[in-house]
Amino acid sequence: MAIDYPKPPMVAQQQGFPGKSSLMTPKPDHGEASYKGSGRLAGKRALVTGGDSGIGAAVAIAFAREGADIAIAYLDEHEDAAEIKQQVEKAGRRCVLLPGDIQASEHCKRIVDETVGAFGGLDILVNNAAYQQVHQSFDEVTIAEWDKTFQVNINALFYITHFAVPHMKNGGAIVNTSSVNAKHPMPSLLPYSATKAAIANFTLGLAQSLAEKNIRVNAVLPGPIWTPFIPSGMDEDQVKGFGGQTPMGRPGQPAELAPAYVNLASDESSYTTGALGVVAGGMPIY
Questions:
Q1: 9/101 Cα distance (integer angstroms)
Q2: CATH architecture of 40-279
Q3: What pLDDT, in 10s, does the model give residues 99-144?
Q4: DSSP category for residue 118
Q5: Is 192 tagged catalytic?
Q6: How is the chain split into domains, by residue range?
Q7: pLDDT tens-place string over residues 67-104
């Protein structure tokens, strides 16, 4: 039976970026009570950026229940990260927490090196960490804001991938988090939308580049998802109506994204590379 997830009006709330799941009302569903694994990633070793909350947390839980060891890279949300680590270990898998700012290429190398050191290798990379802020007009977008959005969302993604690929063997998988904004940019999220389009384009190009190594590269394009991004990046009126524009009339929950990542990371998708998968509650995305 499908879960009856909340619909707008959502509770009006705000947080500072990057936000915490533990402070949200209602708390996002990461699949803690619902995701059932079936060994699809047995023995795999995965690095998930932004794995402390939101989509990344749901992916970490699902991957662990499918049999993978998980390294979680995150900024500084230690309480959320500890909760997800507990979920991973409850599933009987190893978990490494890697806090720090991925804007620095040196840190990006460190998280890859520490993942490989802890697990003896790397099979799956999920580039999910991101930054966004809403702006009511183009005049509000500062150069510093533009630079930070690109540094976190696309430059760091390249750094991490650059350091990870040499450790990945035949059959490795990279799954990037893009967005429906890659194809339908929102003027209020101009820098964010531009980076998400860059991620989609990077995914398509890298998939071709790594095909001869049999390392698959795909991306998920989420629609409106109930994560800490929402109260930390939108005003209260936007939070209240969040997700109501979709045909399903509600925001998605992180748990509803996890199966797409599992599918793209699993060996069952051995002929799937260069795919952009939309999970957006029926929103038509071309």
A1: 34
A2: 3-Layer(aba) Sandwich (3.40)
A3: 999 999 999 999 999 999 999 999 999 999 999 999 989 999 999 9
A4: H
A5: yes
A6: 40-279
A7: 999 999 999 999 999 999 999 999 999 999 999 999 99
